[in-house]
Automatic annotation (TrEMBL):
Name of the protein described by the UniProt record: UPF0178 protein HG543_50595
HAMAP family to which the protein is assigned, alphabetical: UPF0178
InterPro entries membership: UPF0178
Homology family: Belongs to the UPF0178 family.
Source superkingdom: Bacteria
Pfam families, per database record: DUF188
């Protein structure tokens, strides 16, 4: 099992939670970004710096992640690629993407993108809060515990 992090837009508190979980459970973690990252040195922590461009980091994660891995991303199209392949996917606020909800999330995302492209101001997500951090930590703990117990 590996942890995959779509690191270009990953909030700092989420990164810190992931690093602690990786060390505690001795699970390798890979941060994928299109810029250099400053991360603590550890045999469990690695980075992949991809080239600039739209969805380059997403493509790398989509190609590398395997069944039984866990990925953290805000990118719903990436989640839609990973979930059917048996990769557990969380967003940085702790939402678990599943076979049951990914199509709806992708549809809403596409609708909102169409609205923005037509000039409608849709607003953005709220700031990352302490409650978001707590929800993410709880969801990560729950999913990692499940993955470790099932050996996937």
């Amino acid at each position: 099992m590996k942890l995959w992090v779509d690191a270009d837009a990953c909030p700092g508190p989420v990164r810190d939670i992931l690093l602690r979980a990786s060390q505690r459970l001795k699970v390798p973690i890979v941060f994928v970004a299109n810029r250099a990252l400053s991360l603590p040195r550890s045999e469990l922590v690695s980075t992949v710096q991809v080239g600039a461009g739209l969805d380059v980091a997403d493509r790398h994660i989509a190609e590398a992640a395997q069944r039984g891995d866990l990925a953290v991303t805000q990118d719903i199209p990436l989640a839609a690629q990973l979930v059917p392949r048996g990769v557990v996917v969380l967003d940085p606020r702790g939402e678990l993407f599943t076979e049951e909800n990914i199509a709806e999330r992708l549809s809403v995302r596409n609708f909102m993108q169409e609205l923005r492209e037509s000039g409608v101001m849709t607003g953005g997500p709220s700031g990352f809060s302490a409650q978001d951090r707590q929800q993410f930590a709880a969801a990560l703990d729950r999913e990692l515990t499940r993955l470790v117990k099932t050996g996937r």
